[in-house]
Each structure stands twice: as C-alpha cells, then as structure tokens.
Specification:
- The protein is of the alpha/beta class and 231 residues long.
- It has a single domain, classed as Alpha-Beta Barrel (TIM Barrel).
- It contains 7 helices and 8 strands, in the order ββαβαβαβααβαβαβ.
- α6 links the parallel β6 and β7.
- α3 packs parallel to α5 and α6 packs parallel to α7.
- The longest helix is centred in the middle third of the chain and has 14 residues.
- The protein is globular.
Length: 231
C-alpha cells in the first residue's frame, strides 16, 4: 500500500469535521470520469509519502483535528489498510473510509471490528452490465450488492453517492440505483465535473442542467427521502 497524497486539514471531505485526508494509490476500476487519475494506477509517478511521517504529523495535530479520511484510489485493495487504521485509532482518531465497494470481505472486517466511523461508498451505476462499462473493469456486481448490505447493517454512519455522468447515466438509471438503496439514510447525486476527467473525450461533455438534476432528485426522493444533490 502506497500513500501518494496527504492533506493535513480539510473542511470538505467529512461533513461537519476538520479532517486530515490520506490518499492511497491504486484502484481496480478505471472509470473514465475519474478526477483522481494520478491515483488510479499504483505505479503512479506521484512521490510516495512515508507512513511514519504522516503518523508523526497526525500525533502532533490530534488536539484540533476531528478525524482522518482515507481515500484513493481504492483503499480496500490493500489488506495492510487494517494496520494503518488501527494505528490511527490508537492515536484517538475517528476514521472515514471512501470505497467503491468492490472488496466486501475487507470492508466487512473493518465494520465488524468497529474500525471505521463513517463509510462513503460510490455506487457507479445500476447493478447490471453497465457497471463493467462505466468502471472499465470485470467487476461482479454481486460484490457491490454485498458491500451495500454490509454498510446498511453495520456502518455507524454512511453515505452512498453516484456521479451523474451524462454519457453513461440518465434519470432512469438513477432511479434503478435508488431502488437498490431504498431506505438508506443518505444518498448523494454528484454533479459530473468534466474538467479533470481521466478520459479526455469526457472533458468536452456538458454536465446535466440544474432543471434535469432537480427533476431527477425529486423522483429519487420518493424512494430515499434524504437524497440530495452535491456539486
């Protein structure tokens, strides 16, 4: 597991908290709309940040940080994620984990052992063949379904989120996702930002307009009342 990014403080990565953010390099998905392309490949040219350096910094900042966010890439690709989280919890930090939900076994271990306080899971698409297209992977969507179930039953707090990419998803697709997530406490429909999309062809695609976003949200809220839009 290689750490390729570290923010000492952020006010936007964990709502209501000032948190540090650790970026793990490497992902099993290659979503063309991904905005963290430099973190997708584990052999990214970004310099590796020593874990000991991060731990030392976080010890010093414990009195004014409210938590640590671990994101990627896909952190759950790496079994030694568990050791990193245990080390952070020994210092006293609450942990938020960002995941694509494709490693339910490790996610389940983290949740069963109460090692994470908040899970944010991306649900990329309806759980059918489009999932492989939108992630450019051979993912079995049953693993995604398993992770959703684990989060719903074991996570102390959580959110599901979907990036609303015009070339891949429409209102009907969002409704299919909402049907799988029905009853969830929190679901966020994220506006697509073409600026740094991994696939250059997507950088010229315009995001959905505000009217279509609101229309989609209103229909979605019939299944998930707390669904909301996020820029």
């Amino acid at each position: 597991m290689k750490i390729k990014g570290f923010l000492e403080s952020s006010m936007v990565d964990w709502e209501g908290r000032i948190s540090a953010v650790i970026f793990i390099s490497g992902c099993n998905f290659s979503c063309p709309f991904c905005h963290n392309a430099d973190l997708v490949k584990e052999n990214s040219a970004l310099p590796e940040i020593p874990r000991e350096q991060i731990i030392s910094t976080l010890r010093k900042k414990r009195n004014w940080l409210d938590g640590v966010v671990i994101t990627g890439g896909e952190p759950c690709m790496f079994p030694d994620l568990i050791g990193l989280i245990k080390e952070l919890r020994e210092i006293g930090y609450p942990i938020k984990l960002d995941t694509n939900g494709s490693y339910p076994q490790l996610l389940g271990e983290l949740l069963a052992n109460k090692l994470v306080d908040y899970v944010a899971m991306d649900v990329k698409a309806p759980l059918n063949d489009i999932y492989q297209k939108i992630t450019a992977s051979s993912i079995n969507t049953e693993t995604i379904r398993q992770s959703i179930g684990l989060i719903l039953s074991l996570a102390p707090a959580y959110e599901f989120r979907t990036t609303f990419v015009p070339s891949f998803l429409n209102k009907e697709a969002i409704m299919e996702i909402a049907a799988v997530l029905e009853g969830s406490r929190k679901y966020c429909i994220q506006q697509f930002n073409p600026k740094n999309a991994m696939d250059p062809l997507l950088r010229d695609i315009k995001p959905y307009n505000s009217g279509y976003l609101r229309e989609t949200l209103e229909v979605c809220q019939k299944l998930i009342p707390n669904a909301k839009l996020r820029d």
